[in-house]
Amino acid sequence: MHAADIITKKRNGEELSENEIAWLIQAYTDDKLPDYQMAAWLMAVFFRGMTDRETAALTMAMANSGEQVDLSQVPGIKVDKHSTGGVADTTTLVLAPLVAAAGVPVAKMSGRGLGFTGGTIDKLEAIPGFKATLERQEFIANLQQYGIAVTGQSAAIAPADGKLYSLRDVTATVESIPLIASSIMSKKIASGADKIVLDVKVGNGAFMKTRADAVILAEAMVNIGRLVGRETVAILTNMDQPLGMAIGNSLEVKEAIELLSGRGTAALKEVCLELGSQMLVLGGQAKTPADGRRLLTNLIDNRQALAKFGEFITAQQGDSAILQDTGKLPQAGFVQKVTAPCQGYITAVNAAQIGYAAMRLGAGREYKGQTIDVAAGIQMQCRLGQYVSCGQPLAIIYTNDKSKLKQADEILQQAIEIKEQPTVIPPLIIGLVD
Ligand code: URA
Ligand code: CA
Predict the structure, then answer these.
(1) Which ligand number lies closest to the CA of residue 85?
(2) Quick one: CA dihedral 364, 178, 27, 195, positive or negative?
(3) How far is the CA of 222 from the centre of ligand 2 (A)?
(4) Which terminus of the chain is less hemmed in, N or C, by CB atoms within 10 Å?
(5) In what order do the strands lie in the sheet with 344-349?
(6) Residues of the signal sequence (predicted)?
(7) Distance in Å, CA 183 to ligand 1 centroid
(8) pTM for this entry
(9) Which residues are catalytic?
(10) Could you tell me which CATH class the domain 331-419 is placed in?
């Protein structure tokens, strides 16, 4: 096979065969295909798109490019959840113990945060002692014993995707539906998921700004799942404001504990119940989403999910005393209120800007490998539609770097809009694609 022929075919809008795609991805992974040819092919895909069959073939070629995690020794249907990325998205911290408590094994390989979105591994590492990198055997042993294990995604998972993503980043080819869909699905499949629940975020704090775009991405991923035999369901959820009230690693762990203790933000709980009930249905632990929701609500109310969270933290060498005393989590040296400059209704909360402010405070990374401040972040004090009086706190900012307070305050003042008249609040759960 010749790369130039495959590029020509794609450029002309013809459908590539599974073999052609597999050959191209293998050659690129093995450093036998230069970046300039792969870049030309990516640009042809960007303009011509891919059929569902091609997208599925690309997904499997990338999934097969490295290690395939085999979870067959672990009984039960392994259902993974993936979010396309948002702000104050603490769902994984809540759902992992919650769904595990309901009897669906949770085998998660998660990433670190980059830019204005956080990463589950960083959040877990805010827990004193927590070990977020498990050897494969330890991962499987914990799964067998506790029904839950979370580890950082190793470079051995779908290496073709990592290499392609770096190239896409510098060739203006990130924003292609088949490339995004195959990138996400290849990592889930290589990580051993039998079935997948996707949380596709829509709004100003998300990759997809409109419902129409989000539906197209969701359908692309659900179709891949169907074609490769990994049943996939996607829920579209709103990201026009931070989902929970906490942004930042320690603060989000605290919010997850509060939710599992029967308190916590209504919107975060709602999205967790919606995603979790789908996970229970796919995992065979509930007949309908409504049954799943009842079961999960029970596991919160009777604190069994909180107990599972403690078991999980202890199993990965963390200090589960944080469940009784969240003051044992790392605390920031500087705390400052951001107050309303006038009275009125909250009509817009720019989630991306708030995520950016949290990153600047030290909660996230501007570049790969940057050290973060797990205690840094933002605790929101208002939600869309709420009426606030002049001087009322809109948010509380936390950091260990005093010089960061002023800029964060300015960004937050800009990000939160207050008007005399209330606005229409967008629905939280926007749709389902299955
Ligand atoms: N997230 C991914 O994992 N891949 C993409 O291409 C975009 C978002
Ligand atoms: Ca369908």
Answers:
(1) 1
(2) positive
(3) 7
(4) N
(5) 387-388, 344-349, 416-419
(6) none
(7) 5
(8) 0.95
(9) 82, 161, 168, 183, 187
(10) alpha beta
